[in-house]
Specification:
Elements lengths: L9 H4 L20 H12 L11 E4 L6 E8 L6 E6 L5 E7 L4 E8 L6 E9 L2 E9 L2
Antiparallel strand pairs: 1-2, 2-5, 3-4, 3-6, 6-7
Length: 138
Amino acid sequence: QFSLNVQSSFYSRSGQASSMLAKPLEQFLQPTTLKKVLVENATAVNATTQEASDYKLLAYPNPVKDTLRLKYFVEQTTSEVSIELVDGKGAVLNTIKQKPVLGYNSSQVPMNNVINGAYFIRTYFDNKVQTVKVVKFD
């Protein structure tokens, strides 16, 4: 018989019982793809979306200091995506228009010219609107 000392190993720190049959928890997870991870993150971030849409929007970092990065996925060709930076009063501070390609698209919204506070990123895509709340903080 062999004995295995696992008192300070991964298994004891992960909450699994110390045994020869214990496996790291990662072995039980399903395979994933980058698309699945981004869609799940965008869904979590956009829980307060005004209208459901065929694409997901991910805005990061949030809170933002200088530049807000946006990622979104396009499954079919469209003419244009309009991205607006809106303040709490509803005034549009900045508008970016972009021609998307099939698949992942990215954009950047400069935030260094606005004061600290809460803002919204509003996107228009194929007559659909999606809104994400972001916080500017230096």
